[in-house]
Design brief:
heterodimer; A: 351 residues; alpha+beta; Butyryl-CoA Dehydrogenase, subunit A, domain 2; Butyryl-CoA Dehydrogenase, subunit A, domain 3; 2 domains; four-stranded mixed sheet; 11 helices; B: Butyryl-Coa Dehydrogenase, subunit A, domain 1; 3 domains; four-stranded antiparallel sheet; binds flavin-adenine dinucleotide
């Protein structure tokens, strides 16, 4: 078995053992799942995406996507994806990776003055659980990847329907621990990575939601038979299945493009936008169906369903909301003109 | 729960696909000079034997079949490139589409050597058009209830009964028809069905085109009154018809024709919206449309990869068809919304006319090839609900 599959299986077993309703409930009341995190650290997952030469496991982006899908499948209340991607960004820029939990954010709105960073990053996921933050900031002719120590930043806790930690991070003349020059174009790539991360998590959580709904339909009896025997329920669940399939394919295709763009085959922004939009749409439609099939029990605190659906509703909005990405992609397509669309759709083998 | 469906991403073979794609594009550029938007919107319902012969000359029909049967021994993925280029351009492919997609592969898989030698090379040259005789007046979704029968007589079979909704029967050379060769049992209705290659010039066949709501006739009623087919024209084994038809449907349900039917409206719609000055809402709608298109394409190529590997991805094909027809059916409405089309028009080739045409045929997208409800039933079975 290859390394990615091995890590994935280990993670799956760990989550099966640890991430239950109690774990999620505790995390949502603000208790950091320390044991879960240290087990994940022990697998070496923090540096899974760091090249082997720099001491990591050297996994590709597509392999990361499969791991992130598992974090979604269990709604694991830890910033594993955030840490993996932040570490990968640092390693690629040649900056040493600090210990602990790492997060990243789109820093293009920050101001850099004489090497000091100023500004506000809205709703950064897991900021107050993290030791360090990675952003790309600076003017186009001098964009730098910056590693910031979060002890020198203010984190204002926020509330969200996902109930995992989210904070507004305010930087007031913060001095980065380290910086390295990157292309201005790569700065938007950070936003895309976040969007793809959420897309994979959505795909994983949505499959779980489908499984919960199918199990429920096969067990809940009304009118003397399981409700899953009713064709109306079967047809709804089939629609949910189609959304799951679309989310899985769209997110995987997004990561594949990211791998290819690193191999020099053009930028991955188009596929990232597609993944982001399509997975968010799937989350919206899929959650509605799953709740309908579950009836009243599905909206109780007692039931597992909401731990997934609340996160799905939140993830749609992070790293650029569904609507924002749709507008970006649509504007790009319109500006290019009608005869450019087909070449764009088929560009995985560009002529 | 067992995994009900699984899509593995599949890459088109880069170098081959690139070379092939640019050849197909060049060809289509040359021949499409006079095509209006409305012509393009007809695409795989547009029957043009000259065009099909040209496609045949390029080696783009029967691409995956063995060379000794007139094929070109290329992969299913290379074939995919040709199919999607044809549909995106709205080429008039109806005269070879069904034979290339269904009838030829069926003959190749279960036909006799004689059938393969007789039919496949001519299909590959774009010279033979086929139609599919499944549905009957009283047997639609419940296909196994069909009643047209084949009775054994000296040297062959005698066909009696009627098929309906047979696309292109009035313009085709042959039908592959499903007939009852033995009575169904109470418990197993799917037994006793067999497929035949039927020369549509045979005596006793009456073909009556049925006009549809567009005023045009694409499908037909085909009556069989003591029609003789020789033994040599049975396709596959006697009584195996049901299994053969189902394998065939995986090809029918997952191709690019299951999400690109309305695509020829999209580029002119973008141009009509304009490159600048559009509203944010228009951009969002376009972005969502493109996200659905790109995802369906990746799903459809994934299924092409499974077919290439010899699998029969019925579950995956049903999911694509369900999502694909939704997209196709939403497209004309989106054009109306975003372009602000007039209710009446005087340019019969323009975007308004093309959209009007697609609006009228769109209801069929979720009927042909198995209805939406039947597709979802198939998915529900895969999910373990029935
Ligand atoms: C444009 C077009 C081209 C076609 N071309 C061909 C062709 O070339 N060859 C050919 O053989 N056929 C062809 N067909 C026929 C097509 O396969 C049938 O229309 C289809 O199988 C449905 O059958 P029906 O129209 O009799 O509808 P019915 O089966 O009568 O269905 C009517 C409605 O009832 C629903 N329904 C039926 N059974 C169930 C059930 N068990 N559960 C829930 N809902 C159900 C259906 O989903 C549908 O909504 C074509 C159809 C069209 C529209």
């Amino acid at each position: 078995m290859d390394l990615a599959a091995l890590l994935g299986d280990q993670l799956e077993r760990l989550f099966l053992d640890h991430v239950d309703r109690n774990c999620l409930h505790a995390a949502e009341s603000g208790i950091w799942p320390a044991a879960l995190w240290s087990a994940v650290e022990d697998f070496g997952l923090r540096t899974a995406l760091v090249p082997e030469a720099a001491g990591g496991s050297g996994l590709g982006w597509s392999e990361a996507g499969a791991i992130l899908q598992r974090t979604g499948r269990f709604a694991a209340p830890i910033p594993l994806g955030e840490t993996m991607i932040a570490a990968a960004l640092l390693a690629r820029a040649g900056i040493a990776i600090p210990e602990g939990v790492l997060v990243f954010a789109d820093g293009r709105a920050l101001k850099v003055d004489d090497g000091l960073i100023e500004g506000r990053l809205p709703a950064v996921a897991w900021a107050h659980a993290a030791s360090h933050l990675v952003v790309a900031a600076g003017p186009d002719d001098d964009t730098r990847l910056c590693l910031l120590d979060l002890r020198h930043a203010e984190a204002h806790p926020l509330r969200s329907i996902g109930r995992d930690a989210r904070d507004d991070v305010v930087l007031r003349g913060a001095k980065p621990v380290a910086t390295a020059p990157i292309e201005a174009a790569a700065a938007v790539g950070i936003l895309e990575l976040g969007a793809l991360m959420r897309a994979s998590q959505i795909a994983g959580a949505l499959r779980r939601v489908m499984e919960l709904a199918v199990d429920y339909a096969n067990t809940r009896q009304q009118f003397g038979r399981p409700i899953g025997r009713f064709q109306a329920i079967q047809q709804s669940l089939a629609q949910l299945a189609a959304e799951v399939a679309a989310a899985e394919v769209a997110s995987a295709a997004g990561w594949r493009a990211r791998d290819k763009s690193e191999a020099g085959l053009g930028k991955a922004g188009f596929e990232a936008a597609v993944a982001r939009i399509r997975c968010s749409e799937a989350a919206r439609l899929g959650c509605a169906i799953a709740h309908q099939v579950h009836g009243a029990i599905g909206v109780t605190d007692e039931h597992m369903l909401h731990y997934f659906t609340r996160r799905l509703w939140l993830w749609r909005l992070e790293f650029g909301a569904e609507t924002w990405w749709a507008e970006e992609l649509g504007a790009t397509v319109l500006e290019a003109g009608g005869d450019k669309l087909w070449p764009l759709l088929t560009r995985d083998d560009p002529a | 729960m067992a995994a009900a469906f699984h899509f593995e991403l599949c890459d088109l073979p880069r170098d081959e696909a690139r070379a092939l794609r640019s050849k197909v594009r060049n060809f289509l550029n040359d021949v499409s000079a006079g095509w209006t938007i409305a012509d393009r919107a007809r695409s795989w319902t547009a029957f043009d034997r000259d065009f099909s012969r040209q496609v045949g000359r390029h080696g783009w029909i029967g691409m995956t079949w063995p060379a000794n049967y007139g094929g070109h021994e290329r992969s299913a993925l290379e074939r995919y490139v040709v199919l999607e280029e044809m549909l995106a351009a709205g080429a008039p492919v109806a005269a070879h589409w069904i034979a290339d997609r269904q009838s030829g592969p069926l003959i190749l898989r279960v036909g006799t050597d004689e059938q393969k030698r007789e039919f496949l090379p001519r299909i590959a040259r774009g010279e033979l058009a086929f139609c599919i005789g499944l549905s009957e007046p009283d047997s639609g979704s419940d296909l196994a209830s069909l009643r047209s029968k084949a009775t054994r007589i000296s040297g062959g079979w005698r066909l009696d009964g009627a098929k309906i909704w047979t696309t292109n029967a009035h313009q085709s050379d042959f039908m592959i028809g499903l007939f009852r060769t033995a009575p169904a049992s109470e418990t197993a209705r799917h037994i006793g069905l067999s497929q035949f290659l039927i020369d549509l010039k045979s005596s006793g066949i009456e073909i009556r085109p049925i006009a549809d709501l567009t005023g045009e006739s694409h499908f037909n009623e085909v009556r069989f009154d003591a029609v003789f087919v020789p033994d040599s024209m049975m396709v596959g084994r006697e009584g195996d018809g049901w299994a053969q038809v189902n394998a065939e449907l995986a090809f029918e349900r997952s191709g690019p024709d299951r999400y690109l039917s309305a695509y020829p409206l999209v580029p002119p719609m973008l141009d009509a919206i304009g490159k600048t000055g559009f509203e944010a809402q228009a951009a969002r709608d376009v972005g969502r449309l493109v996200a659905r298109l790109a995802t369906l394409r990746a799903m459809s190529i994934s299924v092409a990869g499974m077919l290439q590997a010899g699998a029969t991805p019925l579950q995956e094909a049903a999911l694509i068809k369900d999502l694909g027809v939704d997209l196709e059916q939403d497209t004309p409405r989106l054009v109306e919304d975003l372009v602000g089309l007039p209710p009446a028009f005087d340019d019969p080739g323009g975007l308004a006319a093309a959209t009007a045409y697609v609006t009228q045929v769109a209801p069929t997208f979720s009927l042909r090839g198995g209805t939406r409800e039947i597709m979802r039933g198939l998915t529900a079975r895969g999910l373990g609900l029935r």
